[in-house]
Amino acid sequence: MSAAKTLLAAVALMASLSTPAADLLEVWRAASQNDPEAARAAALGAQAEPRREQARALWRPGVEVMGGAGLMTATSAMNGAAFAAPGFGQSTGVSFGTSVKGGRASQWSVGLRQPLISGERRARSLQLEQGAEAAELEARLTRQNLMLHTSQRYFDAVLAARRLSLLQRQLQAVQRMLAEARDRFRLGDAPVTDIHEAEARAQGLQAQALEADNTWQVALAALRESSGLAGLQLPLAEPSAAGLPTPPAPLEQIREQVLSGHPGLALLQARVSMAEAEVRSLDASASASLDLVAQASRQHLVGSGDHGAASNDARQQMIGLQWRVPLYTGGWRDARQQEALRGVEQARAELDQARLQISQQSRSAWLTLSSAPGRVAALQASLQAARARLAATRLGRSVGDRTTLDLLNAENDQVAAELGLMQGRIEVLQQGLALDALMGRLDEGSLARVNARLALNPDL
After folding, report:
1. Distance CA 72, CA 321 (A)
2. Going by CATH, does the domain composed of 2-61+119-286+332-455 fall within 1.10.10.1320?
3. Cα–Cα distance between 209 and 220 in angstroms, integer?
4. Is the pLDDT of residue 7 over 80?
5. d(Cα 381, Cα 407) in Å, to the nearest integer?
6. For the packed helices 404-438 and 372-398, what is the interaxial angle rounded to 10 degrees?
7. Vertex 321, ends 318 and 327: CA angle to 5°?
8. What's the sign of the alpha-carbon dihedral 334, 335, 340, 341?
9. Quick one: average pLDDT of 12-32?
10. N or C: which end of the chain has fewer CB atoms below 10 A?
């Protein structure tokens, strides 16, 4: 059953060669519409404008309306007053008194406050502006990561399919050798050890092919699920020998471009600025504020009390400047500022750590690309040598100069060389995309350039 399943997978893989090949660009465009990371990137980017609007709103006037109604008891008394009125003369030691018990009270006020000077608002505004920039950078970084993940899933599926195909081809060759060894043993032309060696290799290859089939199916399912292409056609286009990417500039220039253009570093720098703004917003000088204020209010009370029916009505209008300076907050502001200072230190440490890691990543990607022509040429030469060795070993075995084990090893070496060459080409293309991402330049154009280097069943 296991052998049948493996052979069926191989037949399906070979049969799919007649269908149009899916390429990296097609898969990416589908993933950019269907992968949850794409939706996350869009949601992150959409947060930028609301944050900028909040920053602008901090300096706009605020209007407040307040009203209330209820039952109220009020008593007022004034003694020793002086009183004068036309026709009444002047009196001293006059007393005035009002009293309302359980009267109906109502009040309303309308107030406007326009911030003029506020260190705290200025710091909060800067935080929001930096937060908007951070949202855009995080959206850009998420989209770049999605591109890298999509290309990695694509090449994982390509490599898994190639490995399964090579193992199937090797298994068929070993099965032919096993049949030949049995025939030659019956004729007395080969020892029984040839049969045992071929049987052992065939069983081992069957196990490897089953494992490769599982890996291929998992890789293909991951690609289909992330792209939303449930009917993704096979085979996938593979890296060809032509036009492998090379470093676009010397290493030091690349490192400078990476450190200045990487969106992740810019995001961490924005977080440092936000943390520093938080410290400034908690400074004692930032707590002072100057506002333009305007207010109109009325308080009305009507009812009866100790002196009979009574009503009180008070109206006020005011416009002017209001200066506010908190003198003591119970130590909260100082403690919060100390916490914010530690936050700045943490943000700066994270930025320094990221700079170091990304600098190392840029060096690694540059070295991979700079050595790519030599490495791929060496892998190509190794494959040619493995093929020549296999042909010579087949000829030597046919005349008795080589054993079945020699031929089995030669077959294995050729498969390993073919797989190594394909893996080497994939690594170069993926590192080229990674370097674009490090410089903050990874976009659909980068994927299109890689896609142009793919072909259906390229020569190895």
Report:
1. 33
2. no
3. 16
4. no
5. 20
6. 170
7. 120
8. positive
9. 68
10. N
